[in-house]
Design goal:
By secondary structure, the protein is of the alpha/beta class. Helices cover 36% and strands 23% of the residues. The protein contains 15 helices and 16 strands. The strands form 2 sheets. Strands 1, 2, 3, 4, 5, 14, 15 and 16 form an 8-stranded mixed β-sheet that branches. The radius of gyration is 21 Å and the shape is globular. The structure holds N-(iminomethyl)-L-glutamic acid (NIG) and fe (iii) ion (FE).
Length: 410
């Protein structure tokens, strides 16, 4: 029989609740958070607790005077893959372009061939290692895309591995089918047949087996056109799946407008999106997911239209884009730092971008803020201010994470 009203209370911490409209970061000084049944049951100033923490909860945890934020949400990763792209990296730092690598059959297609020959156990083992690092730096929810298999069986294998990561580590994983990443070599002269395979064969199977929460298309100069993208998004929506788009990274092909037309959850990259694209995203309520890791690794010089996104009120999220080719970035504090330094986000915008706005980019309205009723996903930080999360590079002051009220040590 339960005698305490709460299972756990964290106290002796400042809270960055990220609830908009009040103090910067939604700050509550000397705060406390109480959890019950995996949810936040109470949050506020410690002085307003009706009794001492240890009398109110089965377990009272002294957070050591640091900061507590919502658990971080990574809304865009490709972290299940075979092999690596270190040779691509060596060529690129010597001057080769990403587009030249793609045309020469390395790039994404190299990872496709390495992934097709990797078994499920190997893919899982390597991906778990990456995700453990992410969790140690504050991530409690993440999205994982397929897209390095392209054939039916390998795509299904990648999505199964992604689901298993969630169950093995107790972390929330949202899966996305990205069969429309590039056209695989066996369909090189038959793009239309590949699109038919995606729409008529793979998508229905993925939906029937519950393997994907959403569908993504790489709509860009080296991948799929807006018309091809629309065909895949239509098929996805007919099956009741949410959609998102890799948009305007290499060229402005009108991808943001397609994302908006389908009311995509998010449009991601956006380096070359023009003002009209931004206006359409705002109208559609689509979140802009910016990926500064890819910008950094590709030595991009064209930045996403941050001022226009702000001016039109498009919510900005950040993600690691963890992938072997363009963004071998593992931690969200790294993406926050790059988002501030390279794109000019403020540290407060960067934290909103990996909490409230990232949750929205995944269609999750039960997390991303510290408020009663939300999932009790927390990140604890040995930091003097929440801006410090964006300050360090190559490490972070994360002191632990909590998933659905359950502390994980880091
Ligand atoms: O998000 N843009 C397309 N997809 C990945 C890159 C994948 C790769 O190069 O392996 C991205 O950057
Ligand atoms: Fe990506």
């Amino acid at each position: 029989m339960r005698t305490s009203p709460y299972e756990t209370i964290w106290y002796n911490a400042s809270l960055a609740t990220m609830t908009p409209g009040g103090a910067p970061y939604g700050t509550i000084r000397d705060g406390a958070i109480a959890a019950r049944d995996g949810r936040i049951a109470w949050v506020g100033a410690r002085a307003e607790l009706p009794d001492a923490p240890e009398r109110l909860a089965e377990r009272a945890i002294d957070a050591g005077g640091g900061w507590i934020t919502p658990g971080l949400v990574d809304p865009h990763t490709h972290l299940v893959f075979g092999g690596d792209r270190v040779a691509d990296f060596e060529r690129r730092v010597a001057g080769e372009s990403y587009v030249a690598a793609a045309a020469g059959g390395s790039g994404i297609l190299h990872t496709v061939s390495m992934t097709r020959t990797a078994d499920e156990a190997t893919l899982l083992r390597d991906a778990l290692r990456r995700v453990r690092t992410m969790i140690a730096h504050g991530t409690t929810t993440l999205e994982i895309k397929s897209g390095y298999g392209l054939d039916v069986e390998t795509e299904m294998r990648l999505l199964r591995v992604a689901r298993r990561i969630g169950s093995e580590l107790g972390i929330s994983v949202r899966t996305t089918y990205l069969g429309a990443h590039v056209v695989p070599p066996e369909y090189a002269q038959r793009r239309d047949e590949y699109l038919a395979l995606i729409c008529d064969v793979v998508l229905p199977r993925v939906a029937a087996e519950g393997l994907a929460d959403a569908v993504d298309v790489f709509c860009d100069a080296i991948a799929f056109s807006p018309a091809e993208t629309a065909r895949v998004l239509e098929a996805a929506q007919r099956l009741g799946l949410a959609v998102k788009v890799h948009a305007d990274q290499i060229a402005d092909t009108g991808a943001a407008a397609v994302a908006a037309r389908f009311h995509a959850l998010s449009a991601d990259h956006l380096e070359r999106t023009g003002d009209e694209g931004v206006r359409l995203l705002a109208e559609a309520g689509t979140v802009a997911v910016l990926l500064p890791g890819a910008y950094h690794y590709l030595r991009e010089t064209v930045k996403p239209p941050v001022d226009a996104l702000r001016a039109h009120g498009v919510p900005i999220a950040l993600a690691t884009d963890c992938n072997p080719g363009t963004s071998p970035v593992l931690t969200l504090p790294t993406a926050m730092n790059l988002g501030c330094v390279l794109f000019g986000l403020s540290p407060e915008e960067a934290l909103a971008a990996v909490t409230r706005n990232a949750a929205r980019a995944l269609g999750l309205n039960d997390r991303g803020e510290l408020r009663a009723g939300a999932r009790c996903d927390l990140a604890l930080w040995n930091a003097a201010s929440p801006a410090e999360l964006s300050y360090w590079l190559g490490g972070s002051p994360c002191a632990g994470t909590v998933i659905a009220g359950r502390p994980l040590s880091s």
